[in-house]
Design brief:
- With about 450 residues, the chain is of the alpha/beta class.
- Helix 1 (about 10-25) runs parallel beside helix 3 (about 90-110), helix 1 crosses helix 15 and helix 7 (about 250-265) crosses helix 8.
- The chain has helices at about 10-25, 70-80, 90-110, 180-185, 200-210, 240, 250-265, 270-275, 280-285, 290-300, 300-305, 310-325, 380-385, 425-430, 435-450, and strands spanning about 1-5, 30-35, 115-120, 120-125, 130-135, 140-145, 145-150, 170-175, 190-195, 215-220, 325-330, 335-340, 345-350, 355-360, 360-365, 405, 415-420.
- The longest helix has 18 residues, at about 90-110.
- The strands form 4 sheets. The chain has a 6-stranded mixed sheet with strand order 3-2-1-7-17-16, covered by helices on one side. It has a 5-stranded parallel sheet with strand order 8-15-9-10-11. The protein has a 3-stranded antiparallel sheet with strand order 4-5-6.
- Helix content is about 35%, strand content about 20%.
- About 35% of the residues are buried.
């Protein structure tokens, strides 16, 4: 009997398990899914219970299966929920969807796959010649022929300032997903949010909905907010013009030319960006390392603004808040943060000019820590110490082959240990959204079961 263990039951792990169960096996397979039961199918993004936190992809494109992208919308319709395929629905519904279809798949039959849901935490991995043992916090050991590390998002790194003493303050929140944010932050408190991406948007919406009266500040190096979605536009693929190009500036010139053409022909720049989505991973893999670093340093913030967009109705709320002075979006580089008598004093600079903000609370929305050597994870530390895995050269995740085989410290790809999702960001760049992850889950399920 083949034994497969998936470590992590957030969106990535759940999607992989669903694809394995759907595919089935002609030979007996034991599938272990290791995750705390309260988090199954939720992870960070879909663990929210706030219905104002919306998906950033329309419902009609959020299906769990690569061969049925409309599956989620069909699920909504079956339940009589009033959402069309172009609606940006509450993320809590997507978490319910994953758990619902997971339960349905188990009820309908597992097609030769014996599923074990293990409510525990993996803290170690010991490789053998043709298998690996997963060590759980309870002391149980899971012998496995194949292991998949389905990591999700981790807490952000602390701000890059000299003294981190302020991080011990009761109203400093390391993660935007801290469930105590609205309990500990008073409606009259002023709040600084570090970061101006989609997680910042979620925090602002959450605070505003409960009646925040204190002013909210959001700061990032460029002070850029996510662009808004505008649906209904298309643009033909021009991938053949940039295929194989090894310089970011050449690719950028071509993209800008097509954006100008899109506006001239009645389309929209968003459609130009979206036309690249099926090819983004290959474009990234074709780039030399120095060009990838150039992109990360100079262009990645602009790409994230254009690529990871927010629903228009959310953008309207932010506009209203800025109009009436309730939200200030600032551009600047953090220099120092101190905490005295319940007040954070944050210093920042903009092109040589110094700025200062005094607030009662700080929420860290910098983004998930990607450098695995800095993670507070017993399992990751154990694997790095043993050389079973290593960081990718950009320190955006783990080193792996494009199909998810993890590469050890001797540069040898494993036939036992795999990954998908966020850990693949350095290899594929676009590897954090459901449309990319479900494709990886589909391909990896076939490899694990049919090999």
């Amino acid at each position: 009997m083949k034994k497969i263990t998936i470590v992590g039951g957030g969106a990535s792990g759940t999607l992989l398990a669903l694809n394995i169960l759907k595919l089935g096996s002609e030979v007996p397979v034991t599938l272990n899914l290791v995750e705390r039961s309260s988090r199954l199918g939720r992870g960070v993004a879909f663990g929210t219970e706030n219905e104002l936190h919306l998906l950033n992809v329309p419902a009609g494109r959020m299906g769990a299966f690569a061969d049925d992208v409309g599956h989620f919308h069909a699920w909504l319709q079956e339940r009589g929920l009033p959402y069309g395929p172009d609606y940006f629905v509450p993320r809590v519904l997507f978490g319910e969807y994953l758990r619902s279809i997971f339960a349905t798949q188990i009820t309908d039959g597992t097609n030769g796959v014996q599923l074990n849901l293990i409510d525990d935490e993996a803290i170690g991995l010991s490789p053998n010649s043709a298998s690996a043992d997963i060590i759980l916090r309870s002391g149980e050991v899971l012998p496995s022929d194949k292991v998949v590390l389905a990591f999700g998002n981790f807490d952000p790194p602390h701000p890059n300032v000299p003294d981190l003493g302020f991080t011990a303050a009761p109203k400093y929140f390391r993660s935007p997903w801290d469930r105590t944010i609205t309990e500990k932050i008073s409606p009259d408190d002023s709040v600084l949010i570090i970061g101006t991406g989609l997680s910042m948007v979620d925090v602002v919406i959450q605070l505003t909905a409960r009646g925040q009266r204190g002013r909210i500040y959001a700061i990032s190096t460029r002070g850029l907010l996510p662009a808004r979605h505008k649906l209904g536009y298309t643009y033909p693929s021009f991938y053949d013009e940039i295929s194989g190009r090894a310089r970011i500036t050449d690719i950028l010139k071509t993209v800008r030319r097509h954006i100008r053409n899109a506006h001239a022909t009645g389309s929209n720049w968003r459609a130009v960006i979206d036309s690249l989505r099926p090819h983004t991973q290959q474009i990234w893999m074709d780039l030399p390392t120095n060009e990838k670093r150039y992109f990360m340093q100079h262009l990645s913030r602009y790409w994230n603004v254009a690529r990871h967009r927010m629903p228009a109705e959310v953008g309207d709320v932010l506009d209203e808040l800025q109009k009436y002075g309730k939200l200030a979006v600032l551009k600047g580089r953090l220099k120092d943060i101190t905490y005295t008598d319940g007040v954070f004093d944050t210093e920042f600079s903009v092109i040589g000019e110094q700025g200062n903000i005094r607030t009662n609370a700080i929420v860290n929305c910098i983004g998930s820590e990607c450098d695995y050597s800095k993670l507070d994870s017993g399992l990751v530390r154990d694997m790095l110490d043993k050389g079973v895995v290593c960081r990718d050269e950009l320190r955006l995740g783990l080193n792996a082959t494009p199909d998810g085989r993890l590469i050890d410290c001797k540069s040898e790809p494993s036939d036992i240990i795999y990954t998908l999702g966020t850990a693949m960001k350095g290899i594929l760049w676009e590897s954090t959204a459901i449309p990319e992850i479900r494709g990886q889950a589909h391909a990896l399920a076939h490899r694990l079961v049919r090999e």
